[in-house]
Design goal:
Elements lengths: L19 E3 L2 E5 L2 E5 L6 E5 L2 H13 L6 H4 L8 H13 L3 E3 L3 H11 L27 E2 L30 H12 L17 E9 L2 E8 L4 E10 H7 L3 H10 L2 E7 L2 H7 L2 H23 L2 E6 L4 H8 L4 E10 L2
Antiparallel strand pairs: 1-5, 2-3, 3-4, 6-9, 7-8, 7-10, 8-9, 10-12, 11-12
Length: 333
Amino acid sequence: MSGPKLAGGYSGRESLPEYPHVVGRWHIKDSRFVLIDVASGKAATVETTPVAAEALAAVCGRCCGQTDLATVFQGFSPEIEPELVEAMTALHAAGLVVDDRRRPHRLLRELQRFAPAADEPVLPTDRAGWRDARCRTGSQVHTGQRAASGVFTERPRSLPLPDPSPPQPPVEPGELAALLASGYRTEGEWKPVASAGRLWPLVLHALIPDGECYELLWFDPDRPALRSTEARVSAGVVEECLIQSDVSTAVMERRGSLVVISVDLSRVGAKYGNRGALYSLLEAGAVGHQLAIGAKAMGLGTRMICGFWVSELQQALELELIPLALVLVEHRQ
């Protein structure tokens, strides 16, 4: 969506909610105000001036569902208010500005409402887990040779971006397989991290640099091993999926391996409804921490990256899953 362009009349605030609530997160890029709701997939872009974009961000910051319109637009000059109102009207039409001063409470009620009642049967769940059909029988398999373990006296630290130290040799597939095994392997009916209902809905993939592309591998937690999907993703496509320019530049310059943590919501939705999404986020954070601990024991460094375009990354990896986080993995100097 582009706009707003003032052409003809200023309709005022009549079409806006009395208590506006902005859904999603926003950022400003090249005088464009971008608002995106990852949960619903809705997104909108407002092309305007840098001053108006900053003012629009300030307006959205006030739209918490508890503040009325008069307070939301208070303090802005009469010259810029029409442009702000039209931008908010366009966002409202896109479904990203809603009217609900009690939205957080309603969300909690909705999360509880979609949970199964005590007298309702819980749908059976396949505990075998999600498998990437692109991994054919006989495809290349990388098995970790050493597992990450030990007692640590120093907290694992994220890799700095940008990092002034020279790039290190890329992480070998076997090393990466061992790292992922330390964080999400299957041992009997358990994994190293806790999961609501023991469903473990997360799926891990690895993007390993291969020339001007990345090779996509799927982590099989039962083996545990990285299995080739025979898919390739160009470095340029991966770079376009990252929102922050400094992060994307550093990732492309250093060409480290990337771990993609995704979720198969169908595994948790039958039992927990919408709450399954919240549990999946908690589990993804636990996996990221487990990988950081394992990486330190192996002489590797990690950095979790959550600033990426979800739909673009889904399309690039050809996944029906929902990516939650990326983890950059490198050798530490």
